[in-house]
Every structure is written in C-alpha cells, then in structure tokens.
Amino acid sequence: MCRKIFISFLTVFFLLAAAASRADGYGETRPVVVWQTARLGKATDLILGPNGLFYLPSGNKLIALDGQGRKLWEAAIPAGGKTGQPVFDGRGSIFFPGGSSIQEVKLNGSSGWNFAVYGDKSNSAMITFGPGNLLYLPLPSGLYALDTEGGYQWLMQQYDSQDANRTQIADKREILACAGNSQAVFVVTGKKGQGYSLLAVSGEGKILWRYWLGDIKTVNLATGLDGRLYVTVNPGKIERLTRGIVYSFDSTGDGNPRWSYSINRNDLTAPTLSGHGQLYFCAGNELFALDLANGSKIWSTPLYKAVSCPAVDENSRRVYLGADDSRLLAVTPQGRLDWDLPLDGKVTGRPLPGPGGVLYVATDKGSLYKIKTGATSGG
Prior knowledge:
By secondary structure, this protein is mainly beta. The chain has one helix at 2-26, and strands at 32-37, 47-48, 54-58, 61-65, 71-76, 87-88, 93-97, 101-106, 111-116, 128-129, 135-139, 142-146, 152-156, 174-180, 185-191, 195-201, 207-214, 216-223, 228-235, 244-250, 259-263, 272-273, 278-283, 286-291, 297-302, 311-312, 319-322, 327-331, 337-342, 352-354, 358-362, 368-372.
C-alpha cells in the first residue's frame, strides 16, 4: 500500500514539474490569437500600406484587408508574366513588377499606368525605389528608371564592358536581386555557370562600383537606415572555399565590403536589420544575430525546422520567425526560444510586427492571424 502511494506521489510530482516547465517556457509572454482570416491564398510577405490596410500579394492577385482581417477587395494584376514583390510610394499607389513591366495599382484596387519593355524576356520580376525617388526596373537589356507617374527617365544598357559591343539583349543574362536607397540602386546580375556581380548604380545611371560574387545560387539585399547595403549570399554548393556569406557595403564606397561573416550553409534567408544595431538571418535551422557595426556574431540559437526570414519587434526586441512544421517561433533578445505557437500551415513568409505587442502572420495555407504576443518594451 505504501509503495502504491509512493508511486502515485512520484507520478503527480513529475506531472506537476513538467507543467511548471512548460509554463516557465512561456513566462509572461504567452501568445493569444486575436483573430484568424482563412482562405486567402498562399501569400508572399505581408505588407502594411500607408493607409493602415493590409495587402497580401498572392500569385498574380492582390488582396486588401482591414485591421480586423476582413477582405475589402481582391484585384488581378494585369502586368503579365511572373509577378514579383510590390513596392509602395507612400502616397496612394502600389507598383507591381511583371516579367518585363511595371503595373501601377491604386490603393482601392483600380489599375493605373503600365510600363512594359517588349522583346525583353526576363525570368525575374522585381523593382525598387532608389535615388531621386525613382522606380528602377532591372532587366537583361538594362536598368530602366521611371518616375512614379510612369514617365521614362533613362536606361543604363551596359552592366559590364562586353555590353558595349552588343546590339542585342545579352543572351541568358539573369537578374537575381535588386534594392535601393537615396544614394544608389543595387543590382545582382550575371549568367549561370559564369558567375554574378553586385553593382551599385547612381541616380544618373553611372556604375559606382561592382563586387564579384562568383557562381552563386541565390542572393538577398537589404538597405539600412544607416545608408549601407547588407547582403546574404548562398553559393551553388558548399566547398572549402565556398560558404554562405553576409556582407556589409557602403553605398557609394569603393566596392570593398566593410565586413563579412561566413558560415558553412547555403540556405541563408534575407537579412533583417534592427534599429538597435543588430542583423538577423536564419540558416540551417538556426537563427543568427550579428553586430551591424562589425559583423561579429552576438549569438545564435538552433530552432527546429525554422525556415522564414526573421522579423524583429523594435519595442520588445524580440525576434519572430516561422517554421516548416506550422509553428510560429518567438526568440528573446538574448537568443533564447521564448515560445512557439502552432498555426494552420507552414509560415514561410516574414511575420509583421505591429504596435502594442501585436504580430500579424500569414500561413502557406492561406490564413492571416493577428496575435497578441504579450511582449513588453525592452523584452
């Protein structure tokens, strides 16, 4: 009888200890789902517009939702070909890249102007704002600059010295990435098997500098409020001299990196920059935090099946990212997993932090969540 009582006591004790451990893992920041909107379609990164509405690019359509997750309208994008990530001008328009075009969409879903380059077949679909508040459309035939009314400004046709003698579009040239700030527009271009270069171009179409990246698989660009460019590069394969690399460049410098950080991975996500001097990226199911000033590693933490580009809440300094097994992950400013929250599908897009400890998350199953994270200022 005493043995049965003792075994029962141990069973209760371990159950209570396990429950306490789970509670400690959540601490005071246990997440709560405020609302969920379903059947929206698989979206790329969720965007908060200048009018306070949410916009979800999904395939060749754009969905607008209000702050309660109610769908306001859905518009097909008539740009043609593959549609890329849109950009906002902050005053009343959204600009979508097609295979070789730009389509203006008003914030109410109606179509505006369209700019297309005929005969230039591009596998890429990307645009960016850059110097002079112009729109920049990188294509194999060259870099096009337009104003926000759709007016053509200039064309830079020579990505490299060999282009000077060509009369036709460079055969098999690819555009892998582009980004811009007030000082320069950045383009990664080249050919598969022959290598790629990162170019910085001025607002007048002059190449400021170029940097050789080699035969790479993918590359991601992000511009910071400090006027610098941050890059994550994934090699085609991991070898002794080819590793994943994070770079920092001055926009109008000499083209040499300010610093670099290498890692034995080739699945680095796009970099996420914070206002408190750190850069975050995910690679090999691990989240990394680097010092923006010198590229040194501050911390890294393994996260099971983590896949998405991280997002940072500037108030709490917590980092959020999605997992391949349908979980949302929250990491403390010190690099410790604070909690995970099961959702209805994979989270491959970047979460979107909002004010007051709120987070908006889109899943690959087509749902949008509003989540109260419980995080406080300073985390």
